[in-house]
Amino acid sequence: MVVNHELTVGSLRSTGSAATVDGTLGTVGGNLGTVGGNLGTLGEKLGTVGEKLGTLGGKLGTVGERRRH
Questions:
Q1: Radius of gyration (C-alpha) of the chain in whole angstroms
Q2: How far is CA 35 from CA 5, 23, 30, 48, 49, in A?
Q3: Do 47 and 55 form a contact (C-beta atoms < 8 A)?
């Protein structure tokens, strides 16, 4: 079943306002995308740090193992 609804609101008929809203939403979306990108980069850096710490822990474990023998 297809129902077509048509709603006309006087204040929303202005194309200029709609374009401004679209532009604002586009800017907000762009900013959120940038924030997401920055968080992704930060997560990647933290992952690298974690990996380095894991490697360091492994080396220290090997040294400890050698000393026990």
A1: 28
A2: 37, 18, 9, 20, 21
A3: no
Instruction: For 14-65, write each residue's pLDDT tens digit.
Output: 567 878 888 999 999 999 999 999 999 999 999 999 999 999 999 999 998 8
- Cβ atoms of 21 and 15 within 8 Å: the answer is no
With vertex at residue 56, the alpha carbon angle to CA 55 and CA 59, rounded to the nearest 5 degrees, is 90
What is the rounded distance in angstroms from the CA atom of residue 22 to the CA atom of residue 4?
24
Task: State residue 55 phi and psi, 5-degree precision.
Answer: -65, -45
Q: How far apart are CA 28 and CA 47, in angstroms?
A: 28
